[in-house]
Structure to design on (260 residues):
Protein backbone atom coordinates (compact mmCIF):
# COMPACT_ATOMS: atom_id res chain seq x y z
CA UNK A 1 0.00 0.00 0.00
CA UNK A 2 1.27 3.48 -0.80
CA UNK A 3 2.30 5.82 2.00
CA UNK A 4 0.97 9.29 1.20
CA UNK A 5 3.31 12.28 1.18
CA UNK A 6 1.45 15.36 2.38
CA UNK A 7 3.42 18.60 2.16
CA UNK A 8 2.23 22.01 3.36
CA UNK A 9 3.51 25.02 1.41
CA UNK A 10 2.94 28.04 3.62
CA UNK A 11 4.10 30.45 0.90
CA UNK A 12 4.61 34.04 2.22
CA UNK A 13 2.51 33.61 5.35
CA UNK A 14 3.26 33.43 9.11
CA UNK A 15 5.62 35.29 11.40
CA UNK A 16 7.97 33.23 13.57
CA UNK A 17 5.54 33.16 16.52
CA UNK A 18 2.60 32.26 14.31
CA UNK A 19 4.63 29.54 12.59
CA UNK A 20 5.73 27.92 15.85
CA UNK A 21 2.22 28.01 17.25
CA UNK A 22 0.78 26.47 14.05
CA UNK A 23 3.36 23.71 13.94
CA UNK A 24 2.82 22.84 17.61
CA UNK A 25 -0.89 22.29 16.95
CA UNK A 26 -0.21 20.29 13.78
CA UNK A 27 2.33 18.17 15.64
CA UNK A 28 -0.18 17.32 18.35
CA UNK A 29 -2.88 16.61 15.76
CA UNK A 30 -0.86 14.13 13.71
CA UNK A 31 0.92 12.40 16.57
CA UNK A 32 -1.52 9.51 16.50
CA UNK A 33 -3.16 7.75 13.62
CA UNK A 34 -2.34 6.64 10.17
CA UNK A 35 1.12 6.54 8.75
CA UNK A 36 2.03 9.14 6.17
CA UNK A 37 5.04 11.29 5.34
CA UNK A 38 4.41 14.87 6.40
CA UNK A 39 6.47 17.86 5.29
CA UNK A 40 6.03 21.47 6.34
CA UNK A 41 7.54 24.29 4.25
CA UNK A 42 7.44 27.60 6.15
CA UNK A 43 9.00 30.84 4.88
CA UNK A 44 12.79 31.13 5.30
CA UNK A 45 12.52 33.41 8.36
CA UNK A 46 10.66 30.72 10.34
CA UNK A 47 12.72 27.67 9.28
CA UNK A 48 15.04 27.59 12.27
CA UNK A 49 12.32 28.09 14.89
CA UNK A 50 10.06 25.51 13.21
CA UNK A 51 12.97 23.07 12.97
CA UNK A 52 13.45 23.34 16.76
CA UNK A 53 9.71 22.95 17.34
CA UNK A 54 9.66 19.80 15.18
CA UNK A 55 12.49 18.03 17.03
CA UNK A 56 11.44 14.51 17.98
CA UNK A 57 8.34 14.56 15.76
CA UNK A 58 7.65 12.59 12.59
CA UNK A 59 7.20 15.76 10.53
CA UNK A 60 9.97 16.80 8.14
CA UNK A 61 11.00 20.35 7.34
CA UNK A 62 11.20 21.78 3.83
CA UNK A 63 12.06 25.13 2.26
CA UNK A 64 10.17 26.81 -0.57
CA UNK A 65 13.11 27.69 -2.80
CA UNK A 66 16.92 27.90 -2.92
CA UNK A 67 19.77 29.18 -5.09
CA UNK A 68 21.80 26.58 -7.04
CA UNK A 69 25.21 27.76 -5.77
CA UNK A 70 26.53 26.72 -2.39
CA UNK A 71 27.70 30.26 -1.56
CA UNK A 72 28.59 33.53 -3.25
CA UNK A 73 27.63 37.11 -3.96
CA UNK A 74 23.91 36.54 -4.58
CA UNK A 75 22.17 39.20 -2.50
CA UNK A 76 18.93 37.98 -1.02
CA UNK A 77 19.45 34.31 -1.85
CA UNK A 78 19.67 31.18 0.32
CA UNK A 79 21.95 28.22 -0.48
CA UNK A 80 21.48 24.43 -0.12
CA UNK A 81 24.01 24.10 2.77
CA UNK A 82 22.17 26.90 4.60
CA UNK A 83 18.95 24.91 4.29
CA UNK A 84 20.67 21.77 5.58
CA UNK A 85 22.13 23.83 8.43
CA UNK A 86 18.66 24.78 9.70
CA UNK A 87 17.34 21.23 9.47
CA UNK A 88 15.64 21.04 6.07
CA UNK A 89 15.25 17.68 4.41
CA UNK A 90 13.08 18.83 1.48
CA UNK A 91 13.00 21.85 -0.84
CA UNK A 92 10.23 22.92 -3.22
CA UNK A 93 11.73 23.85 -6.61
CA UNK A 94 10.16 25.33 -9.73
CA UNK A 95 6.86 26.32 -8.13
CA UNK A 96 4.66 28.03 -10.74
CA UNK A 97 4.75 31.23 -8.65
CA UNK A 98 8.56 31.23 -8.99
CA UNK A 99 8.30 30.53 -12.73
CA UNK A 100 5.58 33.17 -13.25
CA UNK A 101 6.56 36.08 -10.95
CA UNK A 102 10.32 35.58 -10.77
CA UNK A 103 10.83 34.36 -14.33
CA UNK A 104 12.55 31.14 -13.32
CA UNK A 105 13.13 28.88 -16.30
CA UNK A 106 13.23 25.09 -16.42
CA UNK A 107 16.95 25.35 -17.27
CA UNK A 108 17.62 27.29 -14.04
CA UNK A 109 15.40 24.91 -12.06
CA UNK A 110 17.40 22.01 -13.51
CA UNK A 111 20.55 23.51 -11.95
CA UNK A 112 18.78 23.82 -8.62
CA UNK A 113 17.57 20.21 -8.73
CA UNK A 114 21.12 19.00 -9.35
CA UNK A 115 22.62 20.94 -6.44
CA UNK A 116 19.77 20.05 -4.09
CA UNK A 117 20.51 16.37 -4.77
CA UNK A 118 24.23 16.97 -4.29
CA UNK A 119 23.47 18.30 -0.80
CA UNK A 120 21.08 15.42 -0.04
CA UNK A 121 18.01 17.63 -0.03
CA UNK A 122 14.88 16.01 -1.50
CA UNK A 123 13.58 18.32 -4.24
CA UNK A 124 9.80 18.57 -4.64
CA UNK A 125 9.80 19.66 -8.27
CA UNK A 126 6.66 21.42 -9.53
CA UNK A 127 5.35 21.20 -13.07
CA UNK A 128 1.99 22.07 -14.60
CA UNK A 129 0.16 23.94 -17.31
CA UNK A 130 -1.74 27.26 -17.38
CA UNK A 131 -5.46 27.56 -18.08
CA UNK A 132 -4.81 28.85 -21.61
CA UNK A 133 -2.56 25.88 -22.34
CA UNK A 134 -5.22 23.46 -21.07
CA UNK A 135 -7.94 25.17 -23.07
CA UNK A 136 -5.72 24.90 -26.16
CA UNK A 137 -5.31 21.18 -25.30
CA UNK A 138 -1.54 21.64 -24.99
CA UNK A 139 -1.21 20.43 -21.40
CA UNK A 140 0.55 17.18 -22.26
CA UNK A 141 3.18 18.73 -24.52
CA UNK A 142 3.79 21.54 -22.00
CA UNK A 143 4.35 19.11 -19.14
CA UNK A 144 6.53 16.90 -21.33
CA UNK A 145 8.73 19.87 -22.30
CA UNK A 146 8.97 21.02 -18.66
CA UNK A 147 10.06 17.52 -17.64
CA UNK A 148 12.65 17.23 -20.40
CA UNK A 149 14.29 20.52 -19.37
CA UNK A 150 13.84 20.31 -15.62
CA UNK A 151 15.19 16.75 -15.33
CA UNK A 152 17.87 17.06 -18.03
CA UNK A 153 20.96 14.90 -17.42
CA UNK A 154 19.62 13.35 -14.22
CA UNK A 155 20.39 9.67 -13.73
CA UNK A 156 17.84 7.01 -12.87
CA UNK A 157 19.29 6.90 -9.34
CA UNK A 158 18.92 10.68 -8.95
CA UNK A 159 15.32 10.59 -10.20
CA UNK A 160 14.48 8.16 -7.41
CA UNK A 161 15.57 10.77 -4.87
CA UNK A 162 13.12 13.47 -5.92
CA UNK A 163 9.38 14.06 -5.77
CA UNK A 164 7.35 15.40 -8.69
CA UNK A 165 4.41 17.71 -7.88
CA UNK A 166 1.85 18.14 -10.65
CA UNK A 167 0.29 21.53 -10.00
CA UNK A 168 -2.01 22.76 -12.77
CA UNK A 169 -1.73 26.54 -12.46
CA UNK A 170 -5.45 27.06 -13.00
CA UNK A 171 -6.15 25.04 -9.84
CA UNK A 172 -3.79 26.94 -7.50
CA UNK A 173 -5.52 29.16 -4.96
CA UNK A 174 -8.62 29.27 -7.13
CA UNK A 175 -10.77 26.74 -5.32
CA UNK A 176 -10.97 24.97 -8.66
CA UNK A 177 -9.37 21.58 -8.05
CA UNK A 178 -8.50 19.32 -10.92
CA UNK A 179 -10.92 16.42 -10.71
CA UNK A 180 -9.36 13.18 -9.48
CA UNK A 181 -9.70 11.95 -13.09
CA UNK A 182 -7.85 14.97 -14.50
CA UNK A 183 -5.08 14.59 -11.90
CA UNK A 184 -4.81 10.86 -12.63
CA UNK A 185 -4.80 11.39 -16.39
CA UNK A 186 -1.81 13.75 -16.19
CA UNK A 187 0.00 11.84 -13.47
CA UNK A 188 -0.29 8.54 -15.30
CA UNK A 189 1.07 10.36 -18.38
CA UNK A 190 4.01 11.65 -16.29
CA UNK A 191 4.63 8.09 -15.05
CA UNK A 192 4.56 6.82 -18.64
CA UNK A 193 7.17 9.40 -19.68
CA UNK A 194 9.34 8.37 -16.73
CA UNK A 195 9.04 4.72 -17.81
CA UNK A 196 10.12 5.61 -21.32
CA UNK A 197 13.14 7.61 -20.14
CA UNK A 198 14.19 5.53 -17.15
CA UNK A 199 13.31 1.91 -16.36
CA UNK A 200 9.73 0.89 -15.54
CA UNK A 201 11.01 -0.44 -12.26
CA UNK A 202 12.28 2.99 -11.18
CA UNK A 203 9.33 4.87 -12.69
CA UNK A 204 6.88 3.13 -10.37
CA UNK A 205 8.93 4.17 -7.35
CA UNK A 206 9.07 7.91 -8.11
CA UNK A 207 6.55 9.77 -5.98
CA UNK A 208 4.15 11.97 -7.95
CA UNK A 209 1.96 14.21 -5.83
CA UNK A 210 -0.87 16.58 -6.79
CA UNK A 211 -1.27 20.26 -5.82
CA UNK A 212 -4.03 22.79 -6.43
CA UNK A 213 -6.92 23.57 -4.05
CA UNK A 214 -6.50 20.35 -2.05
CA UNK A 215 -8.93 20.34 0.88
CA UNK A 216 -10.07 17.84 3.55
CA UNK A 217 -13.10 16.94 1.41
CA UNK A 218 -11.28 16.14 -1.85
CA UNK A 219 -8.07 14.46 -0.69
CA UNK A 220 -9.55 10.97 -0.23
CA UNK A 221 -10.88 10.82 -3.81
CA UNK A 222 -7.54 12.05 -5.16
CA UNK A 223 -5.61 9.48 -3.11
CA UNK A 224 -7.70 6.62 -4.54
CA UNK A 225 -6.13 7.21 -7.93
CA UNK A 226 -3.22 4.86 -8.63
CA UNK A 227 -0.79 7.59 -9.70
CA UNK A 228 -1.55 10.13 -6.97
CA UNK A 229 0.98 9.53 -4.21
CA UNK A 230 0.17 12.54 -2.05
CA UNK A 231 -0.51 16.26 -2.09
CA UNK A 232 1.20 19.64 -2.01
CA UNK A 233 -1.20 21.81 -0.04
CA UNK A 234 -1.20 25.62 -0.05
CA UNK A 235 -4.07 27.55 1.56
CA UNK A 236 -5.44 24.61 3.56
CA UNK A 237 -2.05 24.04 5.21
CA UNK A 238 -2.23 27.43 6.96
CA UNK A 239 -4.79 26.18 9.48
CA UNK A 240 -3.92 23.28 11.76
CA UNK A 241 -7.43 21.85 11.66
CA UNK A 242 -7.67 21.59 7.89
CA UNK A 243 -4.10 20.38 7.41
CA UNK A 244 -4.48 17.66 10.07
CA UNK A 245 -7.77 16.60 8.47
CA UNK A 246 -6.08 16.34 5.09
CA UNK A 247 -3.36 14.15 6.60
CA UNK A 248 -5.98 11.93 8.23
CA UNK A 249 -8.32 11.75 5.24
CA UNK A 250 -5.40 10.94 2.90
CA UNK A 251 -5.10 7.50 4.41
CA UNK A 252 -8.77 7.00 5.30
CA UNK A 253 -9.73 4.90 2.31
CA UNK A 254 -6.77 4.02 0.19
CA UNK A 255 -8.13 1.18 -1.85
CA UNK A 256 -6.71 2.00 -5.20
CA UNK A 257 -9.11 2.13 -8.13
CA UNK A 258 -8.23 0.00 -11.14
CA UNK A 259 -5.39 1.52 -13.13
CA UNK A 260 -6.16 4.25 -15.59
P1 LIG B 1 -3.55 25.96 -2.95
O1 LIG B 1 -3.69 24.67 -2.17
O2 LIG B 1 -3.78 27.18 -2.10
O3 LIG B 1 -4.37 25.94 -4.21
O4 LIG B 1 -2.01 26.07 -3.40
C1 LIG B 1 -1.42 24.99 -4.05
C2 LIG B 1 0.02 25.24 -4.13
O5 LIG B 1 0.48 26.11 -4.85
C3 LIG B 1 0.91 24.41 -3.31
O6 LIG B 1 2.23 24.57 -3.66
Amino acid sequence: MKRPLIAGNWKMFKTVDEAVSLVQTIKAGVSRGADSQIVICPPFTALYAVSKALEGSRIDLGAQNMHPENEGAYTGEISPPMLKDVGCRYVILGHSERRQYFKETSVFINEKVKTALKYSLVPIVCIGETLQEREAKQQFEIVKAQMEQTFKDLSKEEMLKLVIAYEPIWAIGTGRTASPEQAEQMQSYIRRLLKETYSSESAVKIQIIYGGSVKPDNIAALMKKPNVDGALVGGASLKAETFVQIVQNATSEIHIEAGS
Observations:
- The pocket of 1,3-dihydroxyacetonephosphate is lined by residues 9, 95, 167, 172-173, 211-214, 232-236 (CB under 6 Å).
- Residues 180-197 form the longest helix (18 residues).
- The chain has twelve helices and eight strands.
